[in-house]
Amino acid sequence: MTQGDGGSGGPGADGGADAPRTPLAHRVPDLGALELLLAVARLGSLGRAARETGISQPAASGRIRAMERQLGVTLVERSPRGSRLTDAGTLVTEWARRVVEAAEAFDAGAHALRDRRDSRLRVAASMTIAEYLLPGWLIALRASRPGTAVSLFAGNSAVVARRLQDGEADLGFVEGTGAPAGLDGAVIGRDRLVVVTAPAHPWARRRDPVPAAELAATPLILRERGSGTRQVLDAALRAHGGLADPLLELASTTAVKSAAVSGAGPAVLSELAVGDELSAHRLVEIPVDGAPLRRELRAVWPIGERPAGPARELLSLTRRGG
User: Fold this and answer.
1) Looking at the predicted structure, is the pLDDT value of residue 255 above 50?
2) Domain containing 243 — which CATH number?
3) What is the CATH number of the domain that holds 97?
4) Which residue among 15, 105, 163, 285 has its CA within the 20 to 30 Å range from the CA of 221?
């Protein structure tokens, strides 16, 4: 074989492995057209096939003609007595039946996947949201999705982020100055942190607000590092020398609140968490001057993975206020 002969049959020749191919979607009729052809074959009438598939007869005729142009063969012969498949139409109909059956199997499989996804919802939330906001949202979700089993894990913002990144939660909620690294999210509300003490504490008898620098220098009852509350407090007092070493460092909002009520010292908590204690005068709110103690509440999820199914519905409930 000469070098020239060898070149004529190489991979670059027409039809070879490296030749560009038109995408399949441009070469094969769409499912709607194939279903219409199957209806014509079964009913023997283009008009009846059009009614069965929910389109007008002119639209059905146009779809058949477009399919014939695409395939380069005549599929249907029309006459006053009805519509009859040509020999080519009969062959294409058999192929169409297999394609439609495969599409139905694909759709059934996708439906099963959605059902499996929608049968459970795993939520991870930081303490304040888990204790004071999520119960109402989950009650509302259950009213619309009674078949969805919901599991809730409460932890600090850092733990919530880790659970989402490890695929152990479908949706997360955190408090803080922004979304944790590696996560996307949406602001669903805002919250105010308040300094509180027991009524017998000296700050409770002060007439003037506590300056931010004094708050920073005072040992406080605090949440652990990694919590949204601690993150916001660190940021608010950084310009005033930063936080003093904690008087107590506790892992839950309830524990911090109990220590403050007992008179152990001042604490910083969400106003959502201390409403009852303030109303009952078990705690006193201490005004602070010079420290912005506000934070955003966020729904979060891994970057590139938008919430779907019950997670998306729960997210919608939070934006409607439950």
Assistant:
1) yes
2) 3.40.190.290
3) 1.10.10.10
4) 163
Which of 115, 131, 146 terminates a domain? The answer is 115
In a domain, 209, yes or no: yes
Residue position matching structure tokens 């003609």: 65
Domain for residue 55, yes or no?
Answer: yes
Looking at residue 226, its pLDDT comes to: 84
Q: What's this model's pTM, rounded to 2 decimal places?
A: 0.64
Alpha carbon 30 to chain centroid, angstroms:
31
Report yes or no: 37 and 67 within 8 Å, Cβ to Cβ: yes
pLDDT digits 0-9 by tens, 115-159:
665 668 999 999 889 999 999 999 999 998 888 889 999 998 889
- For residue 43, what are the domain limits? 16-115
Summarised one tens digit per residue, pLDDT across range 216-252 is: 999 999 998 888 889 899 999 999 999 999 999 998 8
The answer to whether 92 touches 74, Cβ cutoff 8 Å, is no
Q: Domain for residue 142, yes or no? A: yes
- CA proximity to 124, closest of 309, 301, 320: 301
Of 194, 195, 197, nearest to 262 by C-alpha is 197
Q: Which residues of 177-204 are buried (b: 16+ CB within 10 A; e: fewer)?
A: eebbeebebeebbebebbbbbbeebebe
Report residue 304: phi and psi, to 5°.
85, 0
Round to the nearest angstrom and report the end-to-end CA distance of the chain.
79
204 domain residue, yes or no: yes
The whole-number pLDDT of residue 169 equals: 94
212 and 158 inside one domain = no
Shared domain for 28 and 107, answered yes or no, is yes
